[in-house]
Amino acid sequence: MKEIHADHDFAPVVDENTRILILGTFPSVKSRESNFYYGHPQNRFWKLLARIFSCPVPQTVEEKKWMLLSHHTGIWDVIESCDIIGSSDSSIKNVVPADIQGLLQRFGIQAVFANGRLAEKLYKKYIFPETGVPIHPLPSTSPANAAYSLERLYEQWSQILTFLDEGGV
């Protein structure tokens, strides 16, 4: 597979009620093809969040947006554009970070979480110096993270609930 320069072509999912923001690194090939986050059928992101929020697993983009926003949760990626080979996070270079500072300033986001170690590392390198807002690392939902079963992911990811207004969820 050949290295390409790729741009992140879809918007963050946030609104005025968003309290937490979950950041990935950069959309996979499948996500770029479907023009929405976590598009690889083996990625456990949607199944995991549905379990955390005690709701059905969303199937359509609209259902996914509704599930997130109705639970005061936003998603975006740390990278606006980069050079990448396929979906390989380890191949990422020439990073242009997304304007997460602008997003945090516009919305009342109370906590930021990283979906995986590279998202955390890139946030700390490019975003934290501008914002001073800490990031909470979570294990990646990627199928490449075989060390984590869905159950283990659930145990770690459930901490997002402590940052949400549980009365409103």
Characterization of the model:
This protein is of the alpha/beta class and 169 residues long. It has 6 helices and 7 strands; from the N terminus they run E-E-H-H-H-E-E-E-H-E-H-E-H. The strands form 2 sheets. The chain has a 4-stranded parallel β-sheet with strand order 3-2-6-7. It is globular.
Q: Quaternary arrangement of the chains shown? A: single chain
What percentage of the residues does DSSP assign to strands (E)?
Answer: 15-25%
> Globular, elongated, flat, extended or rod-shaped: what is the shape?
globular
Structural class: alpha/beta
Helix segment count?
Answer: 6
Alpha carbon gyration radius: 15 Å
Largest sheet: 4 strands, parallel
Query: How far is the first residue's CA from the last residue's CA?
Result: 43 Å
How helical, in percent, are the residues? Answer: 25-40%
The total strand number stands at 7
Mean pLDDT: 93
Uncertain ranges:
none
- Can you list the strand order of the major beta sheet? 3-2-6-7
Strand/helix succession: EEHHHEEEHEHEH
Essential attributes:
169 residues, single chain, 21% strand, 7 strands, 6 helices, 32% helix, alpha/beta
In a few lines, what is going on in this structure?
This protein is about 30% helix and about 20% strand. The protein has helices at about 30-35, 45-50, 60-70, 100-105, 115-130, 150-155; strands spanning about 5, 20-25, 75, 80-85, 95, 110-115, 135-140.
